[in-house]
Amino acid sequence: MFVVAIAELTSSVDDEAGQLAADLGATVYDARLLLAAGTPSVVRTTADKAQALDLLGRLRARGHGAVACDTDAVVASTAMISMRRFRLETDAVTLDEQSGERLRYDDILAMVAAVHRRRTDVETRAKETRFSVARAAITGGMSMRKTVTTQSRSASEERDAVLYVFRKDAATPWILRESGTVWAGHGRPLAPSAGDNFRMTVAALRERAPNAAYDDRLVSRKAIAERTAVAGGGAKTTVKSSSEGAVDLLAHLLALWLGRASSSAAYR
Prior knowledge:
By secondary structure, the protein is an alpha+beta fold. The protein has three domains: 2-72, CATH 3.30.1390.10; 75-121 and 154-267, no CATH class; 125-151, no CATH class. Helices cover 27% and strands 37% of the residues. The strands form three sheets. Strands 4, 8, 9, 10, 11, 12 and 13 form a seven-stranded mixed beta sheet that branches. The chain has a three-stranded antiparallel beta sheet with strand order 2-1-3. Strands 5-6-7 form a three-stranded antiparallel beta sheet, with no helix packed on it.
């Protein structure tokens, strides 16, 4: 599938909504919803490459920072090179668990900060038989119990700050996660929380790679589609939702835009 997105909107949402609606064959209301989600705004997903490129050209002709990609080129965060045990060396990031992996600071194209959100909802249903005075009275003692079904629900949410690190040669990106990371390698006194260590490491990376673009708009982005999976049934149903896949796509689109803005051949 091919995705077209606006990474930088050079007019107001209201001004663009009408023109985008005409391009998409949609209502102005629907076009406004796509734009109001924030940038990068995914405005079309299609299997038709020519259709995607046509829309891309129209958006760029109106001065917008538009990008397009084949979703097959998007690397899932689970397949990225994890910085779970890393070291910030003088000229590169190295990994304790993968001695052959080395990322020179000069080879970093862009760093995109984001948040992965996960939610788990569990619904449990239980049946039990209870003594019923009313039933006993009505049936003259022939039936003194009734079956009662009870339901309970619980929900839990997780937020995991992440930093996508995209490379100039478009090789597999690296990723730094707030959770599950050993922080001894950032070369500074350890902070009391994972969040503090994460932010400290991001700051250190930005210092060491001053020419790399940095973008944190996805940290505060609210309207992100979530992938949902349902398991179980009967007595217990578990519904899990995650924004990870959608954030992976948005981060990749931002890398395309940042690479285009910096004239990087690999991300044009």
